[in-house]
Amino acid sequence: MAREDGTKTSYRGVRRLSKGRYRIRVTTKDKATGKQKELDRVVEAHSTEEAALIRQELKSELDGQASSSTRFTVSGPRGFREVAEQWLARKLSRRRSDGSPALVEGTRRRYENSVKVHLIGYFGDEPIDEISAEHVEELMSDLTSPPNAMRAATVNTQLRILRQILGTVKNTAASDVRTLPEDDGRTTESEPNLLTQEEVRRFLWVAKTEYPQHYPLILLMFSTGMRISTALALRVEDLDEVNGFIKVRRRLSGKDVIPGVKRSRAGADFPPLWPEVAEALHEHRSEFNPAQRASGLVFPTRKGTHRTRTILNNPYKDICERAGITARLTPSSGPRRTATLLYRKAADSAVARHIVGHTTTKMHDHYAPADVEEKMAAADSVRRGLQFETGYSSGDQAAKTGVTEDSDSLTI
Known about the structure:
Layout: E1 7-8, E2 14-18, E3 21-29, E4 36-44, H1 48-67, H2 80-93, H3 105-123, H4 133-143, H5 152-167, H6 197-210, H7 215-224, H8 228-231, E5 239-240, E6 245-246, E7 250-253, E8 256-259, H9 275-286, H10 290-295, H11 313-322, H12 334-346, H13 349-356, H14 361-367, H15 372-385, H16 396-401
Antiparallel strand pairs: 1-2, 2-3, 3-4, 5-6, 7-8
Helix pairs in contact: 2-3, 3-5, 6-7, 6-11, 7-9, 7-12, 12-13
């Protein structure tokens, strides 16, 4: 069969073949032998970003194999439990070049829960070579059945992990099973999880009057498009009031503080610091107790520790109700989507993309797709450009089009 090259994407080693299908290529050098190792695989993913994440996992897998003094091989029949536990141990033991764990604590717990609870809990000591695509489909059916049915995205995560485990013994059963569609209706044209400019005004007014303790955080997120995990990790020294920007260089993952922004541990973003936000933060800090001041955090608890990412869940619901906002709005991505759209309307799309920290235009459009107002404005601009109300040149062109010097409008 001829190899499908696909279309180049903005991610290294990822090429798009068709909707939902990507070709991933990973290469590494074995430090022991000096030989080049390569992995070339076609995978299923709902977006280029997801395909890039799959590639990253496969690269970590390949790097681990290349740097390991004893390769992971199978001799004779083995049970799923044994292979899965060995795969998990290698996954959790990986380190970055600086010596830090490759996986943050929250991700480690999710891997452990997936492997030990769901996968080993289902397959147990079943001979791993005998696991078939039918067995995998039965697992997915079990995970999606009441009373403890999982979301499609969670089930697909189990499937991707299972593919890696079975892949260590060259069992392709899980690779032959398609992932579930992940359309859970959280973001649609009717429920875009963002606010209009007028709704933002009402939302912020109610937040300031009814929830003054949360208003600075809410205003910061709407003005920058910052994720709540990033906002809660901010320190006072990150605020540059003189130059009017914020240096974003860390984020929360569970109870862990992770250096860098979400896309890179070495990266940083510089969103704007509005005077109104700076003033609200000054007032906020003026009420700090000694423990809060000593913490150096912008949004500490009364004990001077990091707040949890669910702190705005209930206030958001109440604020929306008081402000007469019926649209669905979540603290996790609602402000980010809203800020993206408002900045894009006020400035060039590239400028808006850099303000909110999107690395690709695809991600930028995902967070704030063109709304009806933008489409109508663009249509009106094109219509005016055709000069329907002014008429135009006479002569041969007029004879061809039926427009004369006396015409005061364009007739089609």
